[in-house]
Write a structure and sequence with these properties.
The chain is mainly alpha-helical. Helices cover 70% and strands 2% of the residues. It has one domain: Orthogonal Bundle (MetI-like fold), CATH 1.10.3720.
Length: 261
Amino acid sequence: MTQFVQIENFSKIASYAELFKQGVIVTVLLSVFTVVIGFCIALLLALMRMSNIRPFRALGIDKNGHLRESGILASIARFNPLSFLATAYVEILRSTPVIVQVFIIYYGVFGIISLPSFQMFGFIKFSRFFPGVVALGMNSGAYLCEIIRAGIQSIDGGQTEAARSLGLSQTQNLRYIIFPQALKNILPAIANEFVVIIKESAITYTIGVQDIMSAVNAVKGATFVIVEPLLVATAIYFCLCFPTSKIIAYFERRMSRGDRR
């Protein structure tokens, strides 16, 4: 049966305001931890994809000392295990639904690994919150990896040559010259990922994380009101995402001023 919006139903929801408040706190914490974990994973993956480690490089040289251009041995010589693993990780996580990943991490991984059962801030169950953060962080890392890799590769190669001429190692070049410039270019994209995670974090209610959607389900079960709690959740997500996206756009304009000629 179709349920229409009724104003008086909002008065029933008002008594559950504390649940929505807790849901907002959990959602924001989920998003912050997810972006931090995702960024660390993405940075590692990006470096792995750009690495030049080829353990079977010697197979690419024939008995006359010439470089093989084709054939199985040439393919094996060009094989980079770190780049292969990073690429496989990115493609698998970008090609599968987030909810499947959340279930695999929660039921598959942390079904074996026992987590301490305590509550953060008095209402956040760590045993459910942490798997949700890990699952979302792994997913976010797959997307941020390409952003970071593109940002690093966007820096002119001449700066790397200049760093080498000054005696800087590859690590020092990446840390002091390349990455600070790349970070400026990718910061807006990383901030936008934070907005995306705010919305995608709603999926973690399926494993019992007490986010905004969990509050909606609690209100629906207690009051048998369906549409109004969803409207409240929509308004909350809008109030979280819209101002954040505008703030990101503001800082993006400020950061791009120095690039204008």
